Amino acid sequence: FFFPGTAMSEISIPYEELLDFARACLMAAGSSEENANIVAEVCVAADVRGISSHGVNRLDWYVSEILNSTVDGKATPVVVAEAAACANVDGKNAQGAVVGKYCMELAIKKARESGVGMVTAHNSNHYGIAGYYAMMASNEGMIGMSMTNTLPVSVPTRAKTAALGTNPIACAAPTLDQRAPVVLDMATTTVPIGRVEVYHRKGQSIPPGWGVDKDGVSTTVPSEILSGGGMTFLGGSEEGSSYKGYGLGLMVEMLCGVLSGSRFGPNITIGEVDIETHDMKRSEPTDLGQCFMAINPNMFAPGYAARMDQLAQQLRNLPQAADAKGPVLVPGDPERAKTEVHMKDGVKLHVNIVASLVKVAQTVHVPIPKQFQGVEAV
Fold first, then answer.
1. Do 11 and 349 contact (CB within 8 A), yes or no?
2. Pairing assessment for the beta strands 347-350 and 10-13 based on DSSP bridges
3. Which of 19, 168, 245, 251 is close enough to 233 for a disulfide, judged by CB 3.0 to 4.6 Å?
4. How far apart are CA 331 and CA 98, in angstroms?
5. Which DSSP symbol is given to 181?
6. Contacts for 327-336 with beta carbons within 8 Å, 24 or more apart?
7. What single-letter DSSP state applies at residue 216?
8. How many angstroms separate the CA atoms of 94 and 64, rounded?
9. Residue 294 near residue 171 (C-beta atoms within 8 A)
């Protein structure tokens, strides 16, 4: 659906202007300038890459958490245990992006010295797209991995009740072209819950297999998933091998929640979430766990980037199937193409997401970008 007086479904805004707007909203809510810079960059990076579920669609949630004092917008993470190639970090209930950047920078430093760096974090929060942190490593010529547990919104195979998160995994590998790393960034559920939220904002039905209602029955109504239902793991059903996605989600929980000492699985506090406004109310920190790895290929066989480049090109050059919708791609290709368009022509936002941003701006008394003028807050 569209808002009254709005003739278009999408609105474009230049990258820098959207970044400045997100930063201003976070600072007005109570985030430090340094932390606001990090969160805004990670947030807008998702929209630039075409992952709208984790972009400024989340800004109202991030602002609400700071205003309600459920997240500390001024906190700085600290190392609480450390060895040559590994560390455990206390996120101090900082914004997840702040914790994630701190941890991956530390993992990269350790990988330079020891070949491998692995850093876990506890007492963290939602950190945006997992791929951002994996790409921090690939930008340094390393293999990067990033994963996080999340609020328990996903229903294990054969269960009726949500008990694990969407628990995303990202892996980025450098090639000869630094602008074109291979980047896998995926939820272990059929889709991330943010995708369902975007469909809900648009007033659209979702495809079968994405989630279930409160009785564990497959549904195409986003609100039934967001209010008492849950996400399904990769595969969608037991017949579709959802137990494999469930197993991957559990693996993430092992490395993030259990290993770091954070809360895990059904023990993570969801609190009260308004599915329309993303307003978050809870009496205690979420205490998410995260895991970051950097691998220095120079410590192994020489020529890694060239071989990775060769493999990626061989896959892209495979003959297309008769009913293929386009050329063969490798993970990261679609996002890179969208990045080029969005950096040139502006970041495209659905008008309903813009409406939520107008509401955020009004709440924290930040000027509304001219591109958003005329859109009613919701």
1. yes
2. antiparallel
3. 245
4. 26
5. -
6. 330/182, 331/182, 331/183, 331/184, 331/185, 332/172, 332/180, 332/181, 332/182, 332/183, 332/184, 332/185, 334/50, 335/49, 335/50, 335/51, 335/131, 335/183, 335/185, 336/49, 336/179, 336/180
7. S
8. 14
9. no
User: pLDDT 10s per residue in the chain (378 long)?
Assistant: 233 334 458 999 999 999 999 999 999 999 999 999 999 999 999 999 999 989 999 999 999 999 999 999 999 999 999 999 999 999 999 999 999 999 999 999 999 999 999 999 999 999 999 999 999 999 999 999 999 999 999 999 999 999 999 999 999 999 999 999 999 999 999 988 888 988 888 889 999 999 999 998 999 999 999 988 999 999 999 999 999 999 999 999 999 999 999 999 999 987 666 555 555 566 789 999 999 999 999 999 999 999 999 999 999 999 999 999 999 999 999 999 999 999 999 999 999 999 999 999 999 999 999 999 999 888
Instruction: Count the Cβ atoms, other than its own, within 10 Å of residue 84.
Output: 11
Nearest Cα neighbor of 1 from 191, 193, 199 is: 199
- 3-state DSSP call for residue 174? coil
Residue with tokens 């004092």: 69
Dist CA 112 CA 108 (whole Å):
6
Strand 86-90 relative to strand 78-82, pairing: antiparallel
Identify whether the C-beta of residue 224 lies closer than 8 Å to the C-beta of residue 218: no
CA–CA dist 95, 33 (Å, integer)? 13
Which has the closest alpha carbon to 64: 104, 109, 99, 31? Answer: 31
- Which residues are registered as beta bridge partners of 170? 146, 185
143-148 vs 169-173, strand pairing mode: antiparallel
Contacts of 287 (CB under 8 A, 6+ apart): 93, 122, 123, 124, 262, 263, 268, 269
Q: What distance lies between CA 319 and its chain's CA centroid?
A: 33
Q: How many other CB atoms sit within 10 Å of the CB of residue 272?
A: 9
Q: At what angle do helices 351-364 and 15-29 cross, to 10 degrees?
A: 40
